[in-house]
Design goal:
binds flavin mononucleotide; 3 strands; NADH Oxidase; three-stranded antiparallel sheet; about 200 residues; alpha+beta; 8 helices
């Protein structure tokens, strides 16, 4: 599979079956993200593998507490929009998925967030390449999840990636065609764009 094949076939999964995730697959994802670049090669991140059911439950409860507060803080229209997409404060996938990979950023490192997110992008593709699925879950109150994990003060959870085999019938969401977001030399000059592959 090429990277394009992997990127094309992947989609978000919020329902998982109980097939276990192998240690080999977890290692593969970790080795892939290890290769991700960062500014000055500072590598301002840590990863926590969570497979203990009570630890997953604690993460789910902390996440849902943050989500409830978030949903109470937003406008009814926005809430409706989320509900229409099937999103709400309940996060059962955090206990359903056999494994959670939690990526934390080293917050005093300058400009750490874009670098952490490059790493998360690598992780998402590596997960797909191994036939696994995930959802890029960004907790509404990451400090609650960080506390559960007993991470040092400098670290903050950026993402929780459930790892597992998909039981989610939801199709991949459509993407804009290249021609709709690409310009040449300056904004608005579509000009001649590279041919499709
Ligand atoms: C940076 C980022 C943050 C996201 N945060 C969440 C999230 O907090 N909860 C969630 O259920 N999905 C989250 N998603 C998943 C997106 O909703 C999903 O990728 C998007 O709707 C496209 O669907 P697809 O991945 O199936 O193509 C996030 C995705 C990205 C890239």
């Amino acid at each position: 599979m090429t990277i394009l094949d992997t990127a094309t076939s992947r989609r978000t999964t919020r329902k998982y079956n109980q097939t276990p995730v192998s240690e080999d697959d977890i290692r593969y994802v970790l080795e892939t993200i290890r290769q991700s670049p960062s500014g000055s090669n500072s590598q301002p991140w840590q990863v926590i593998i969570v497979d203990d059911p009570s630890a997953k439950m604690a993460i789910r409860e902390a996440s849902e507490e943050g989500e409830r507060a978030f949903y109470e803080s937003i406008s009814p229209e926005r809430k409706k929009g989320y509900n229409e997409k099937g999103l709400n404060p309940s996060k059962p996938h955090l206990t359903e998925a056999p494994v959670l990979l939690v990526v934390l950023g080293d917050t005093p490192a300058p400009n750490y967030r874009p670098w952490v997110w490059v790493r998360i992008g690598y992780a998402i593709l590596a997960v797909e390449e191994r036939g696994l699925s995930t959802v890029t879950y960004t907790p509404s109150d990451p400090s609650l999840v960080t506390k559960i994990l007993r991470a040092p003060e400098d670290y903050l959870v950026e993402v929780v990636l459930p790892l597992g085999y998909s039981d989610d019938p939801k199709p991949k969401e459509p993407r804009k065609p290249v021609e709709e977001f690409t310009h040449r030399n300056a904004w608005g000059h579509r000009g001649h764009l590279p041919n499709s592959q």
